[in-house]
Amino acid sequence: MRWQFCASIKNFENGKTPSYTTEDFAKADRRLNAVYAAALKTVADRVPEGITTDGIRRTQKGWLIYRNAWVRFAALRYPAVSSRSIKTWLTLERIGTINAIPLDLKHDEWGPPTQSCDQ
User: What 3-state DSSP class applies to 26?
Assistant: First the structure.
């Protein structure tokens, strides 16, 4: 997540900021809820080693804190970008993250992150 944060800051500083409508956020939020529920169900049905429904729930709660902190930060640093756009952008990112969870792999088969802020 750190490299994503760094890449996002670089993009924002270069004027590449998100722009979404209220309807975009509503669609993204509905999609996130569906993807999240599907991940919970998959884990409950198949519990791969190292991944639990409790872990997914805790991570989602942590992500909500992260999202809200980003919204507060962006309001100060990028006041021309609406909080709705920031929330939508982060929600779309979260959907991608959840979809990327290798629910069919064991925890010890996951690789380390391959990028850092310096890359």
Answer: helix
Considering the domain boundaries, does residue 63 fall inside one? yes
Domain housing 95: 21-104
How many structural domains does the chain have?
A: 1
Q: How many CB atoms lie within 10 A of CB 5?
A: 12
pTM of the model: 0.79
In a domain, 77, yes or no: yes
- 15 residue type, one letter: G
Could you report how far apart the first and last alpha carbons of the chain are, in Å?
A: 14
SS3 88: helix
CA distances from 62 to 33, 57, 94 (A): 15, 9, 12
Lookup result for tokens 């429904």: 53
pLDDT digits (tens, 9 = 90+) for 57-107: 999 999 999 999 999 999 999 999 999 999 999 999 999 999 887 766 444
